[in-house]
Specification:
seven-stranded antiparallel β-sheet, 8 helices, binds zinc ion
Length: about 260
């Protein structure tokens, strides 16, 4: 993340509006960039001051009357109020603070309109789910390398039965499963390991006809998505794209609706 992007996200971060991936990026930038850290602390202090109202000063009653009558008198010309006394000066500080606050709020809302993600929300959500599962130490609800243990575990927890395969022989051992939430519904998450990398495979039912795989990279994580046999699959990992593509091809090759043929 660059300094300009950080600046655009500062207020969203302070308001807790950023997704997990963005928040982590902001925190990384804060650790690395002293000048942005200083700007961030200034923004934090300014917001605290605005919250406490210490930037605001009340106009003295005489001045308020003067303003009120000037506004009443004024139909088309300009108001003539001279800040000649100390109390008037305090009032002008209040005006300046109000203008400053308005400018700050405008700055807060203006840049983020240019910052909307170009990828689908669900894709972003799936990558966030993947990262959260690694960060929150909540990779699996059921730990097993056996698909015959993992598959029944989802019974009664989901309104569909996800196809579960173990690809240990091909270098992608199944290590367990988890319930997760994406695309506005509960989904199955199957967790595979490849060397030191984890792969989350999210599965949920779909009405769409079988589709070709589509892939995209979000925040350095690769997401590969496809539909088949009435299910949508989304595999997310930080393993190399060659390895993830190989994994996806293996998943697609194996029968997903009938038992594995153990004949040969
Ligand atoms: Zn910076």
């Amino acid at each position: 993340m660059g300094c300009e992007e950080f600046k655009n996200l500062t207020h969203g971060y302070l308001d807790g509006e950023l997704d997990l991936v963005r928040s982590i990026e902001v925190e990384h930038h804060l650790e690395e960039c002293p000048s942005c850290l200083r700007a961030y602390e200034n923004t934090q202090a300014m917001r605290a001051a605005m919250r406490e109202g210490s930037l605001y000063h009340h106009a003295p009653p005489a001045l308020r009357d003067q303003i009120a009558s000037a506004v009443c008198d004024e139909a088309g010309g300009s108001m003539r109020i001279s800040p000649s006394s100390n109390s008037n000066a305090r009032w002008w500080i209040g005006i300046a603070a109000a203008i400053f606050a308005t400018a700050a709020i405008t700055w807060q809302f203006a840049p983020r309109t240019n910052n909307s993600p170009s990828y689908a929300l669900a894709s972003d959500e799936l990558v966030s789910d993947h990262i959260r599962s690694l960060l929150a130490n909540h990779l699996t609800d059921v730990v097993s390398t056996d698909q015959h243990t993992v598959k029944p575990w989802f019974n009664g927890r989901l309104d569909f039965s996800p196809p579960v395969q173990n690809l240990a022989d091909e270098g992608f051992p199944l290590i367990g499963g988890r319930l997760d939430y994406a695309n506005s519904r509960s989904v199955a998450a199957l967790v595979y390991q490849h060397q030191k990398h984890f792969i989350n495979v999210f599965i949920w039912p779909t009405n769409e006809s079988p589709s070709n795989t589509t892939s995209l990279t979000i925040h350095g994580y690769r997401l590969v998505q496809w539909s088949s046999s009435g299910m949508t699959f989304a595999a997310v990992s930080d393993t190399s794209s060659i390895e993830l593509d190989r994994f996806v091809q293996l998943l697609q090759k194996e029968p997903t609706t009938s038992p594995v043929n153990s004949g040969s």
